[in-house]
């Protein structure tokens, strides 16, 4: 959390202007998703640099040429979204738990991205979110889903990927893009403000032909293993 405060202090004189622009973009009837996302994509690198965080990005060439895919990363911490906002050029939508929907600033980001809010304890509501995601992906929108359900809190060790997280991709028959995040937890989930580098690896996608006939739990295990192998490869001493 110290780094968040450090970022705020180093951006103090920009904050009023950014806040005004953010509020203006929340009028989604006047600003389309490309304009709204472009604003976030523009300022994410500035905020990251001011927080002394460098993003080391690999594999952008693996992203499908057509939109309408779902990114499945491991979930290390609060900084993960900023790694995507800096490196992913095309708009994406996030799935967020209901506990964050009323947090100051985050609620505006939710509005700008038109994020889906999920209540993990309400099965009916969760099914509605899956249906909404399926329709939106079919319509050409990209999503980011953390299949672990919550941040691992174990550094570069990842938790079990939940099969249910892949239902929307299966229903939409869309590309699944595994993404490996490395050292992202060091940015916001430690008390350090030392310079740090966060790695993000966009891995080769799984197209419908690659996973049709598989169970959701089997797809989850496959994606989890792909990410584990990448993390192991890039964290060798």
Mind explaining what this structure looks like?
Helices cover 43% and strands 14% of the residues. By secondary structure, the chain is of the alpha/beta class. It has a single domain (2-234), classed as Glycerol-3-phosphate (1)-acyltransferase (3-Layer(aba) Sandwich). Strand 3, helix 5 (106-113) and strand 4 form a beta-alpha-beta unit. It is globular.
What CATH calls the topology is Glycerol-3-phosphate (1)-acyltransferase
Strand content: 5-15%
For the record, the count of structural domains works out to 1
Which CATH architecture would you pick? Answer: 3-Layer(aba) Sandwich
Helices and strands, in order, run as HHHEEHEHEHEHEHEHH
Give the count of helical stretches.
10
Low-confidence stretches: none
Portion in helices? 40-55%
Profile the largest sheet: 7 strands, mixed
* General shape: globular
Radius of gyration: 17 Å
How is the largest sheet built, in terms of strand order? 1-7-6-2-5-3-4
For this structure, what is the CATH class?
A: Alpha Beta
Instruction: Tell how many strands the DSSP assignment holds.
Output: 7
> What would you call the structural class?
alpha/beta
Distance between the termini: 28 Å
């Amino acid at each position: 959390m110290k780094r968040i405060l450090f970022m705020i202090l180093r951006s103090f004189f920009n904050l009023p202007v950014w806040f005004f622009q953010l509020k203006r973009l929340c009028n989604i009837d006047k600003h389309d998703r490309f304009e709204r996302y472009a604003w976030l994509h523009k300022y994410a690198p500035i905020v990251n640099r001011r927080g002394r965080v460098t993003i080391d990005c690999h594999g952008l060439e693996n992203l499908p040429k057509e939109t309408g895919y779902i990114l499945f990363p491991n979930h290390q911490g609060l900084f993960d979204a900023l790694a995507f906002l800096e490196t992913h050029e095309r708009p994406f939508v996030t799935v967020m738990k209901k506990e964050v929907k009323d947090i100051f600033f985050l609620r505006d980001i939710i509005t700008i991205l038109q994020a889906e809010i999920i209540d993990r304890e309400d099965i009916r509501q969760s099914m509605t979110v899956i249906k909404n995601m399926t329709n939106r992906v079919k319509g050409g929108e990209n999503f980011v889903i953390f299949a672990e359900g919550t941040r691992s809190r174990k550094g570069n060790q990842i938790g079990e990927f939940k099969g249910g997280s892949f239902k929307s991709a299966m229903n939409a028959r869309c590309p699944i893009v595994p993404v490996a995040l490395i050292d992202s937890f060091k940015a916001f989930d430690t008390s350090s403000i030392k310079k740090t580098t966060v790695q993000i690896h966009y891995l080769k996608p799984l197209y419908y032909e690659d996973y049709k006939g598989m169970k959701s739990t089997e797809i989850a295990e496959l994606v989890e293993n792909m990410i584990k192998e990448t993390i192991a490869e890039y964290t060798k001493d």
